[in-house]
Amino acid sequence: MTVRRFLERGRGRLRHADKAVLALLAIRFALGVVYSVAVPLWEAHDEWGHYAVMHYIAQEKRLPAPGQSLGVEFDESQQPPLYYVLGALAIAAVDARDWTPPDVNPYARTGTGIGGLNMAVHTPEEAFPYRGWVLSAHLARLVSVLLATLTVWLTYRMAAVVSAGCRWLALTAAAIVAFWPQLLFVGSVITNDVLVVCCAAWVLLALVKTLDSWPPRYAHIVELALALGAAMLSKLTALGLLALFPLAILALGVKTVRRRERLGRFWALTGGMVALALGVGGWWYLRNLASVGSPVLRYQRVLKSLGLIWSDPADLAIRLKPVSLWGALRYGFLTFTASFGWGNVPAAWWVYALFAVLLGVGGVGCIGWLVRRGEPKVRHAGWLALAMVCVLAPPIYLLLYKGTELLRGRMVLAILPPLAVFVTAGIGHWLSPVWRERLPRVLGGALAAVAVAVPFLYIAPAYAPPPVIPAEQVVNLPNPVYVRFGDQMELLGYEYGNRGRYAPGNVLEIRVYWRGLVQMERNYTLRWEILDAEGHAHGTAELYPGWGNYATSLWKPGQVVRDTYRIRIGDDMPSPGMGVVALTVLDAASDSPLPATDPQGRFLGLQFRLRPFKMAAGMTIGPTDAGAEYVLGERIALVARQAQANPDDHTISLHLTWQALAPMNKDYIAFIHVVDASGATVWQVDRQPRNGAYPTSLWDVGEIVDDVIAIRLPDDAASRTYRLHMGVYDPDTQERLLAFDPYGRRLKDDIIVLALP
């Protein structure tokens, strides 16, 4: 065939191709590019480990040697090489010799997200237009986008074969694969998981084409062998697909015998298929076996344990650890559907609900589709189901071997192409013929809308740095402090969320305003602590600024940043009462705190404490007009008192009940003096209520506050008479609040005089 005839034939096929499929592929490719740009570099499982292998192959023009380490965290150099070779070919022309592994955010691995969601510190070097290693990494991501788009095409072809050319079923199944959020994410970052999905779809397509024609065509046999060989070189978890190999040979053999055809052609075809598949995919395993004595370079213990299935199944049963089925299924569903970043960026609940309904309706309907007469049948449904089992088997075995509930959805994502066929058939069971024809547009459009929204609603905001605001707009801050930490940064002010009122178990939100003083080369750590009145911690967070997204090495001198932090208050935090937020700025390299100084340069300590906030749970509010024993400054009432003597240790327990009559913006001091008959003071204490644990500025109008004071009397107290003088004063002016008795008469010297038992 001449080149001209070949091109004309290709154009002819293209003209007759389904325009809807071409449009779907174009949209899927464009969406993949959007995702690859929205997800910052290295914000996917082990991404820089995968890129390091591509980078090595592109630079060294050879594969890493068996057992060789590339010296990076999450080293993937011992994985099968096909994905990395494809990526290396894509980036070979780009000069990326200056690439180094990223600076890691050490607080992103807490599992709670409180230390930030970004695993890497992202520099302006990563911004568009891309150059050097950044361009190289994005080209590597483009390989994943192309593989994911190819998966959509292979799914369409496979669905068309098993449905005997049912266009709406093939289009809808392809649309489900195209707009599945997790595959969009995995298919836009550097990971060999996308190649596994692509190879699984290719293996299924080649398998059903081989089984669908008789006698088997040489082209289909070759395609199946190539697909299985490629799967062997994609990832170790794809080896489960090899179980289809002997079963397919057995099916062809049975078919040959039933048709009473010669077995010579059968043995020639299957022998050639086995030889070609092993030749394409087996050489890497033989290389490892010759070099290190094992066909695989990872999971060697897991591979050895498989031998116990035949030799000692009882011992294998002991080694496998029980896991929570519900926990594994729940985590597996979430990460199979929509889990981004390093598994720490979820979507909203409605996204999971939507796909749960989709799978539920499709699953129930699929049963009816398979058993109901008159429905167009999905041929080779058993093979599709068997392929799903083959994909699920390795991750589930690893789950049991490690005893973890983390069934990672990306590791079973290869079930998506056959699953999409079953779900589409199941949904079609509930629809009339007219609505079946509309299903690709309706369901595909809905899924496309979700897919378009995801990067803008969930992915991009998770990695957005805090807003930079003009310095001239930093006016009228709620709590201006202008505290400097070393010579590096300045805390201009802050404000609490929720009006500064919280309860145990709540998440405290605090917004702060930072200003960089110099260009910082180090990334300093912020340690936030929630303390009770006695200084005990009931909540801690250590992280980089910007919730990890704006490390201090990225700050520019004079730049003002508005940042928000959220810290969970411990369930054991005393309430009602006072809480305090303490801030320490640490040099991560030496773990030493920076000194805090006020605007006048006075040393405040190695920790700066913000103004108290109110722990409001459990407080009691009463009417303010119910009468009081004494009124102080029309702000505070003493509504009850009780004194109980303890003769054994010469102490008196004084129980006071205060009530707030008006809002207070000061922390007033209560004084209690014990005076003898001559007027001399023999014991005294000046303190805020509850010994400073609940200052008056936190009281609500009408709130009733109990207070207990332990009074120490002289040893000869039994033979003498004492009185109690008490009152309240302003700590700034030292002036006492005006004191009145229950009849409104002002007390002498604004002192309440009480007899002691």
Protein traits:
757 residues; alpha+beta; Immunoglobulin-like; seven-stranded mixed sheet; elongated
Describe it:
The radius of gyration is 36 Å and the shape is elongated. The termini are far apart. With 757 residues, the protein is an alpha+beta fold. It has a 7-stranded antiparallel sheet, with no helix packed on it. A hairpin with a 4-residue loop joins β11 (577-587) and β12. It has 20 helices and 26 strands. It has 3 domains: 3-459, no CATH class; 468-615, Sandwich (Immunoglobulin-like), CATH 2.60.40; 620-755, Immunoglobulins (Immunoglobulin-like), CATH 2.60.40.
What's a quick, concise take on this entry?
By secondary structure, the protein is of the alpha+beta class.
Q: From the alpha-carbon coordinates, what is the Rg to the nearest angstrom?
A: 36 Å
**How would you state the average pLDDT, rounded?**
88
The main sheet orders its strands as 3-10-7-5-4-13-14
List segments where confidence is low: pLDDT < 50 over at least 5 consecutive residues.
1-17
Overall shape: it is elongated
Number of helices: 20
Largest sheet: 7 strands, antiparallel
Overall structural domain count:
3
Helicity level, as a percent range? Answer: 40-55%
The portion of residues forming beta strands comes to: 15-25%
Number of strands: 26
Q: How far apart, in Å, are the first and last alpha carbons?
A: 117 Å
